[in-house]
Design a protein that fits this description.
single chain, about 375 residues, alpha+beta, three-stranded antiparallel β-sheet, 12 helices, 12 strands
């Protein structure tokens, strides 16, 4: 009710001033035919009121930021470009606390640790708690209703952040938007506390997150190397283990050099870092498997779509224990001598023009059609 009365007064006075300016200097260009035409003799401004976003400039001016409640009574301001932290307390609260004799640095720190709120603190009198309510003390519904109360007498949009607590759900956000629509707000901004890795204002010290440190490499590791035929040549994948399991992966393309080897080294380093940091090998396989390149290869063990796909297959076989059961078998992904090998050479002699959508084998261009030699797929039907 107070918000409606205040904004109604501001809006009426703004219109009076705009009418006077219109009579003196002329109305805005589209006055004729507008909602004001017929109601007023003139109107200098098409719109006379707005509540603009003033979060940053209010800090410079040392005043409140529009119709926003206090974010926190005592808080830590992060200077993002300098990695500095400034401990600040609302000056009006500090003034009252000193006058009433309950101010102390310990209390200010306690308030900051209490999400910047004075609610529930024995050191703060109840009448002070009722006055100094923070953004997170107010329910999202009343954030929206307060915005709607001001919007009633604001021509343009109203800048207001609907602050949600850290535990807010998707449903809470949905309800805030729907209520804003029902109450005819022209716009809405929601922010869930802690939803960004860095924020300008925080309440209390942030909790330290457990850091994941890759486990160190022992002097001696055991491993196997697999030779896998790919569309770019033979790929050699070395997988080493420590006492905890898979530890590192190296991949090298026979006689490749240049960019191809650099990319394989990068993949190997990242896979190794993931393994040493506790990422499950099966999750790595999921990420690398089925990555396609322009040179897929149909081999005995199934199509090899790219070098990352070959690394995934090598890891998958290693997880299943094939190297332990068949340590001498290196031809799982290669054609053997004879008819199969001839077919492989025959297929790869033609430049691939894509991958078969049915079986994943390379497509070749023949007689104006893209054809899969493996399953018979054809773009010509």
């Amino acid at each position: 009710e107070m918000a409606v009365r205040v904004m109604s007064f501001i809006h009426e006075e703004a219109k009076k001033a705009s009418i006077e300016l219109g009579l003196e200097r002329g109305s805005f260009p589209n006055f004729k035919g507008s909602v004001y035409d017929g109601q007023y003799e003139a109107m200098r401004n098409a719109t006379v009121t707005t509540i603009a976003p003033t979060g940053t400039i209010s800090i410079i001016a040392g005043c409140s930021s529009g119709i926003e409640p206090l974010f926190a009574i005592s808080f830590i301001r992060n200077v993002l470009d300098k990695d500095d932290k400034l401990h600040e307390t609302n000056p009006y609260f500090e003034e009252i606390a000193r006058e009433m004799g309950f101010y102390s640095e310990e209390l200010m720190n306690k308030i900051a640790e209490n999400n910047g709120s004075v609610q529930g603190l024995e050191e703060v009198p109840e009448e002070v708690q009722r006055i100094f309510v923070t953004a997170l003390d107010i329910s999202p519904e009343w954030h929206v209703r307060m915005q709607a109360a001001f919007q009633k007498y604001v021509d343009n949009a109203t800048s207001k952040t609907i602050n949600l607590p850290e535990h807010a759900t998707v449903e809470d956000v949905k309800n805030a938007y729907l209520l804003a629509y029902e109450l005819k707000c022209k716009g809405i901004t929601v922010y869930r506390y802690g939803s960004r890795p860095e924020q300008v204002i925080t309440t209390g010290e942030e909790k330290e997150r457990d850091a994941i440190a890759p486990r160190p490499r022992p002097a001696v590791v055991r491993g196997v190397t697999r030779k896998i035929a790919t569309g770019c040549g033979n790929l050699y994948v070395t997988m080493n283990e420590d006492e905890h399991g898979l530890f590192e992966v190296f991949a090298r393309l026979g006689k490749a050099g240049g960019c191809a080897d650099a990319q394989l080294e990068a993949v190997g380093r990242l896979v190794s870092l993931c393994l040493r940091s506790g990422v499950k090998p099966t999750e790595i396989v999921k990420q690398l498997k089925a990555i396609r390149c322009p040179n897929p290869l149909l081999a005995r063990g199934g199509p090899v779509l790219s070098c990352p796909d070959a690394i995934a297959k090598a890891l998958e076989d290693h997880i299943k224990g094939r190297e332990v059961l068949q340590p001498a078998r290196l031809d799982l992904f290669e054609g053997k001598e004879g008819k199969k090998d001839e077919e492989k050479v025959k297929y790869t002699e033609k430049a691939p023009v894509g991958v078969c959508p049915d079986c994943g084998s390379p497509l070749v261009y023949e007689e104006g059609c893209r054809i899969c030699k493996q399953c018979g797929y054809s773009t010509c039907g």
